[in-house]
Design goal:
alpha+beta; two-stranded antiparallel sheet; single chain; 6 strands
């Protein structure tokens, strides 16, 4: 029995020591809300340093460490916490108001009513009364015997009612007296009520300022204008970090795409999704956007290359081949539109070339007539530059031939005078044109020769 008692005593002492140690370990309050949020954030950041995305196993490790900092589950529900806060607010405001306004509203009203009776007395018949009238020039003092017609009988004095000021008249008129007392009571009670309500509003502000701390002690945080439990806050921080990590992957892929390496950009996303297939819905839109960008880039390059081809038929054939290889390419509608325009241009240029070939077989005057008609009829056609250039060439050729013919006519003339007349008439009709200088030179020579011959005669 003695040994048992000794053993029991030792166990009791041991349990007491354990209790003291546990109290020392777990009694310490956690830091404030900002400290816990910062600590949770640091846990998430540390776990993310060695991971490209926080999966379930990462979240599990974070939760284990977070539980050591702050309970992840609250002691009550948020609804219960809100009810506790409302009940506490009512009790707090009620107790503080009792300290500041210890007298009840009923007692305050009674007191004010007593003040009103003293401030606004009402004389009954047989009571001693004292009044001033006619702007204070006259006084009456004595027993109030009542109203007689338009007079009040006070002692031996008959006081004209019309000479009494309002403050004196209501001492004898119950209706006026009641109105004055009621107005006074209302004003005083309203002032008191407003002071009490103002104090209640100030107390509410004081109570509300401590809500975050009170909720925090129950296991809740206010974060980004919302209330969270420790577990919800941790989930929100992990989600936020994962959004940042995903954004990093997107930015890497977009940088590749901006440099023109669309396949490299897609490979970055494909490799990431191979390791994290559950995120397909998150990144597939990004891949689709990059694929569209790549297609648009290839389409733009094809259009630029086609634009550099001078022959519209060849440019159309190039774009047709491009579409055959990539029928669903972004911008295919634009390519088809360009191809239709190129087809029209090719037809126009073909017609221009055919017209040139037809004009080539004609004499210059006939060729110019044909070309002038074509230039007027089909002014907006593609290839008109070539037609116009050929027209100018044939026009100059015709001018030179015309000049040659007039020179021949002058040479066949029977006399220098006739030759001069032919040349002068031609220059008058055709002052400008290719070959006209030769005609002028022939005219000068003829004139010189004629002048010389005339001098010799």
């Amino acid at each position: 029995m003695l040994a048992f008692r000794t053993f029991a005593g030792r166990m009791t002492a041991l349990l007491l020591c354990v209790r003291v140690v546990c109290s020392a370990l777990f009694a310490a309050e956690p830091g404030g809300p900002a400290d816990v949020i910062r600590s949770f954030s640091e846990l998430v950041d540390r776990e993310a340093e060695g991971a490209e995305y926080l999966e379930a196993e990462h979240a599990a490790r974070i939760r284990i460490e977070a539980e050591k900092i702050f309970p992840l589950l609250p002691s009550v529900s948020l609804k219960e916490a809100a009810k506790m806060d409302r009940d506490g607010e009512k009790a707090f405001i009620s107790n503080e108001l009792k300290k500041e306004f210890p007298v009840s509203d009923t007692e305050i009203r009674r007191s004010v009513e007593k003040e009103a009776e003293n401030l606004f007395p009402l004389y009954e018949k047989g009571e001693k009364a004292n009044v001033s009238y006619r702007f204070g020039k006259y006084h009456a003092d004595g027993i109030f015997y009542g109203k007689k017609g338009e007079y009040l009988q006070i002692g031996r004095t008959s006081v004209p009612i019309r000479d009494l000021p309002e403050e004196e008249l209501r001492k004898f008129d119950p209706a006026r007296n009641k109105q004055a007392r009621s107005a006074y009571i209302l004003e005083k009670c309203r002032d008191y009520t407003e002071k009490k309500q103002s104090a209640a509003r100030t107390l509410k502000v004081r109570w509300d300022s401590g809500r975050d701390d009170r909720r925090f002690k129950l296991g809740f945080f206010r974060f980004s204008q919302k209330w969270y439990t420790g577990e919800q806050l941790l989930e929100e921080l992990i989600l936020k970090k994962n959004r940042e990590l995903l954004q990093t992957v997107r930015e890497k892929a977009e940088q590749k795409a901006q440099s023109g390496d669309f396949s490299g950009a897609d490979q970055i996303l494909q490799d990431f999704l191979t390791r994290h297939p559950a995120l397909t819905s998150e990144l597939e839109p990004v891949r689709e956007k990059l694929r569209l960008s790549a297609g648009e880039s290839r389409t733009a390059a094809a259009l630029k290359e086609a634009e550099a081809i001078s022959d519209p038929a060849q440019a159309r054939a190039f774009l047709e081949k491009f579409l055959a290889e990539a029928p669903d390419s972004p911008g295919s509608a634009k390519i088809r539109s360009v191809m239709a325009a190129l087809e029209i241009r090719a037809a126009e240029q073909k017609k221009c070339r055919e017209t040139i070939e037809s004009a080539r077989k004609l004499e210059p005057e006939d060729a110019c007539a044909l070309l002038e008609h074509f230039l007027s009829e089909y002014a907006g056609y593609s290839g008109m530059e070539e037609v116009n250039a050929f027209y100018q060439t044939r026009k100059k050729e015709g001018e030179r031939k015309r000049c040659a013919r007039v020179l021949e006519s002058a040479d066949r003339a029977g006399s220098d005078e006739e030759a001069l007349r032919i040349l002068e008439q031609f220059l008058e009709d055709h002052p400008e044109g290719d070959g006209v200088e030769a005609v002028r030179e022939a005219l000068r020579k003829r004139q010189t020769r004629l002048d010389k011959n005339g001098g010799e005669l």
